């Protein structure tokens, strides 16, 4: 079990940002503390704003994706959204307690989500029921086991998780860009041949729209916010704590939760639009709750998506 907070070198440590009373979850055993002042609003929940924003910003998008965001009805999409749902719950538990057990409940699913996304990206153009890389699932399961072992070995060193997750994210990013460039070339060829209304052009246009939204939400907003909030906490904390109730103590980490969850949703919908082309379907978009765009199937050509496949 990881060492208690008094013995752990925190990546960011604000565990004493309360008025001297003992909080319910102390001593904290997570290897990271966040900028929100601990027990500022209640002695029972360490970081209440980060708790509700984990559910709203992560689990909400996972639930919406499970219910409305799987137009091709494939297990790969369901699994990624289910893991996103779990991440939100784990994140809420971590922020509520700063306990090592709940930290792993948050961070390990983040690694698993990247691994599942790797499968979805590499098999994005494979016909239903087939596999371009037959041994890929076994290798990814092995990678998950190795990542889990390394994670628990070094859980007390948050930087190990940070570097591992960041490197895997960059790898997915590179593959993501390659797919988008191919779609852009296909659409350019379709325009040259004056086939703007074709299935390929329609699906690619929708996919590229989600591609752009993903980068706006995650790369341009969420990631800079996380870095700003973590590394400039000392300057921002007095501003956070001076906000009027009920915003008192709310940090930019709230925006990170919401924008990162939104970015993940856009990334998955990008893959859904790509899969629609592979499966011979024409897709369009509609808005869940009048706000959140998702891919839906306009018509079916080659195959029926009713049976879930990996």
UniProtKB/TrEMBL annotation:
Specify the protein name.
Alkaline ceramidase
Name what cofactor the protein needs. Answer: Zn(2+)
* Membrane-spanning parts: 51-69, 78-102, 108-124, 136-152, 158-185, 206-228, 254-272
Which InterPro entries does the entry mention? ACER
The terms describing its cellular component in GO are: membrane
* Membrane protein topology class: Multi-pass membrane protein
Q: Where does Zn(2+) bind?
A: 95, 253, 257
The family database entries (Pfam families) matched by this protein are listed as: Ceramidase (PF05875)
GO MF annotations in UniProt: hydrolase activity
Whether Disulfide bond counts among this entry's keywords is no
Family, as annotated: Belongs to the alkaline ceramidase family.
The record's subcellular location field reads: Membrane
Signal peptide residues are none
Report the principal subcellular site.
membrane
Q: Which UniProt keywords apply?
A: Calcium, Hydrolase, Membrane, Metal-binding, Transmembrane, Transmembrane helix, Zinc
Name the positions where Ca(2+) binds.
33, 36, 38, 47
Per the record, the GO terms for biological process are:
sphingolipid metabolic process
């Amino acid at each position: 079990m990881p060492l208690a907070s008094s013995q752990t070198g925190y990546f960011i440590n604000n565990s004493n940002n309360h008025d001297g009373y003992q909080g319910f979850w102390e001593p904290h055993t997570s290897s990271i503390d966040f900028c929100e002042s601990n027990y500022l609003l209640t002695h029972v929940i360490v970081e209440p704003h980060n708790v509700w924003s984990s559910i709203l910003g992560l689990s909400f998008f996972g639930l919406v994706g499970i219910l409305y965001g799987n137009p091709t009805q494939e297990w790969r999409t369901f699994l990624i959204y289910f893991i996103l749902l779990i991440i939100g719950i784990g994140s809420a538990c971590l922020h509520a307690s700063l306990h090592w057990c709940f930290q792993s409940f948050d961070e390990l699913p983040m690694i698993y989500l990247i691994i599942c996304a790797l499968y979805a990206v590499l098999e994005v153009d494979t016909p239903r029921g087939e596999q371009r890389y037959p041994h890929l699932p076994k290798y990814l399961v092995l990678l998950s086991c190795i990542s889990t072992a390394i994670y628990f070995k070094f859980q007390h060193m948050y930087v190990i998780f940070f570097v591992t997750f960041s490197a895997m994210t960059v790898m997915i990013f590179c593959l993501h860009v390659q797919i988008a460039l191919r779609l852009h070339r296909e659409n350019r060829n379709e325009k040259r041949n004056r086939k703007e209304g074709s299935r390929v052009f329609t699906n690619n246009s929708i996919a590229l729209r989600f591609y752009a939204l993903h980068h706006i939400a995650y790369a341009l907003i969420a990631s800079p916010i996380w870095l700003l909030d973590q590394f400039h906490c000392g300057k921002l904390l007095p501003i956070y704590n001076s906000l009027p109730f009920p915003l008192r103590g709310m940090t930019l980490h709230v925006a990170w939760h919401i924008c990162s969850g939104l970015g993940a949703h856009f990334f998955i919908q990008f893959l859904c639009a790509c899969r629609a082309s592979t499966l011979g379907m024409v897709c369009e978009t509609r808005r869940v709750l009048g706000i959140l765009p998702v891919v839906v199937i306009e018509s079916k050509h080659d195959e029926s998506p009713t049976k879930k496949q990996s």
